[in-house]
Write a structure and sequence with these properties.
The structure is a single chain. This protein is mainly beta and about 350 residues long. Helix content is about 5%, strand content about 50%.
Length: about 350
């Protein structure tokens, strides 16, 4: 081999050795997969990726006072009673980071895990912080895209879930009144305040109950099954009110629920010696169905007692003219099936239990 041939053979080797002895250019490493981005006091909008592509974070200005790096790590949701996870959990960090202004979190879920029978009220976002579970109700629900949007004030573990919602309790109100009987007005035991048929409007069949020997109620069922409280009578205070559809509840009522009803009424004194004027008024009653539970009074237990509250705001005017007088009152009734009120209280006072009734118990 000639010298020139040898040199030609060595040139590639020398070049290769020369290039290997130099330093490689510096390349910044990519950010970790769990970093979503940096947030400053100016605010930011960040998004997830992959299984969390629909996850969104909206930071308003001043949510943080200094810059933070937001991270997301996939996690397994904790198994909870009566609440089913609808996807993976997201551990958002810095863990425990609190915000001066609440931020918006849009959490993804698998829409295939719900159907049309799942009510919006069943969809929630679970927050788990140091073993404590909290439920957040979404401000926005996208059932097609599979997202729930909630406001959060700190970072922790989050996941979308479906909670079991009990079927609504529906009661037929008419069943909580006694069976139809003739009107027998027995209110007090000394006879001075006994209500007579002439004292009442022409109302037909009326159901009457006496509570403590001083106070009585009379009610009438309407054709549609609703209740009209036609009057209240207090022999001790010496007044009687004749109400027109005061409670006026629908034939079926959901528990719990709340409805408003306008009503009119007229009051009069059944005892002329008191020489007080009659009056008329208008008002609005809010009827709340609170619960249905057993109730024991003395030795009697009523199994299915409907507990309702009636709050009334009214304005009345004396007969013959005068300035209207505004007032308010509130009642609570415990209605036993087929009997009616077995307990009541007025204006937050102690409950009064049923003493006697002309209805069979």
């Amino acid at each position: 081999m000639s010298k020139s041939t040898a040199l030609l053979f060595l040139i590639p080797l020398i070049a290769a050795c020369s290039s290997g002895s130099g330093r490689d250019p510096i390349v910044e490493p990519p950010p970790p997969d769990n970093e979503l981005g940096t947030v400053t006091s100016a605010g930011a909008q960040l998004s997830g990726s992959g299984a969390f592509a629909a996850l969104k974070l909206d930071f308003p200005p001043n949510a943080v006072s200094q810059s933070i790096v937001v991270t997301l790590v996939s996690a397994t949701p904790t198994e909870l009673d009566e609440r089913s996870a609808l996807g993976l959990a997201a551990d958002l960090g810095p863990d425990g980071q609190r915000f001066d202004v609440p931020i918006s979190l849009t959490m993804p879920f698998d829409p295939m895990q719900i159907d049309d029978e799942v009510a919006d009220e069943s969809l929630i976002v679970i927050v788990e912080s140091e073993g404590t579970i909290e439920e957040l109700e979404p401000s926005a629900i996208d059932r097609t895209g599979g997202t729930l949007t909630v406001a959060v004030d700190h970072f922790s573990r989050f996941w979308a879930a479906k909670k079991e919602v009990a079927a609504p309790i529906i009661r037929e109100v008419a069943s909580y009144l006694p069976q139809t009987i003739g009107a027998e007005y027995e209110y007090v035991d000394d006879g001075t305040g006994r209500v007579t048929e002439e004292d009442l409007p022409n109302v037909g069949t009326v159901r009457v109950l006496e509570f403590d020997g001083l106070f009585g109620l009379y009610l009438q069922p309407e054709e549609d099954g609703s209740i009209s409280m036609l009057g209240e009578h207090d022999a001790d205070a010496g007044f009687q009110n004749a109400h027109e559809m005061w409670t006026a509840m629908p034939s079926s009522i959901e528990v719990p629920s709340s409805t408003d009803t306008d009503y009119t009424y007229a009051g009069f004194q059944p005892w002329p010696e008191l020489d007080q004027p009659a009056w008329a008024g208008i008002g609005t009653a809010t009827v709340e169905a609170i619960d249905v539970d057993p109730l024991t009074i003395g030795e009697t237990t009523y199994e299915d007692v409907l507990h309702i509250r009636i709050s009334s705001e009214f304005s009345e005017t004396p007969e013959g003219g005068g300035d209207p007088v505004a007032g308010s009152s509130s009642w609570e009734f415990w209605l036993a099936e087929g009997i009616g009120p077995v307990r009541y209280s007025q204006d937050g006072g102690d409950p009064v239990d049923l003493v006697s009734t002309n209805m069979p118990l």
